[in-house]
Amino acid sequence: MNHRFPLHLACGLVALLLAASCTESFSERRQREAREFSQRECPRMVDAYIRMDSMAFVADPVGLVYYYTVLGELDNDSLLTPDVVEDFRQRLLENIRNDINMRRDKEEGFTFTYHYTSESTGKTFIEASFGPEDYR
User: What is the DSSP string of 87-121?
Assistant: First the structure.
């Protein structure tokens, strides 16, 4: 009787081990996807006054950061009254709550940060972060 390990089983075991060692965690995948999205899609105009510059995955707190530049007529910090800023923050939060494409990120407890910079001054215009305690 031959007690050698069958070659096809050995090859299958090696393939399984290689596949398992090459799998990405969800966070690793999101980091790669954010980088690829930024390389492929950015910069791009969201509308006449806002340009998306990039998206990045961050580890602490785990989440995504979206970088935008404000241009033209909206690039005027005198427009940023407390009511306007609060209304803008609420719209961002509602978008997170309603965006089905963010479902898995929200299930993982991601924090979403939106960073808007003035084109004319380079200063932060608005920065808003939303964690699970905000969108759940």
Answer: HHHHHHHHHHHH-GGGHHHHHTT-EEEEEEEETTT
Give which of 12, 68, 70, 74 is closest to 38, Cα–Cα: 68
26-135 folds as GMP Synthetase; Chain A, domain 3 (3.30.300)
Domain residue ranges of the chain, discontinuous segments joined by +: 26-135
Q: Answer whether residue 4 shows pLDDT above 80.
A: no
Q: Which pLDDT score, from 0 to 100, does residue 43 have? A: 97
d(CA 103, CA 88): 22
- Residue pointed to by tokens 């950015």: 42
The pLDDT tens digits of the residues spanning 65-101 come to 999 999 999 999 898 899 999 999 999 999 999 999 9
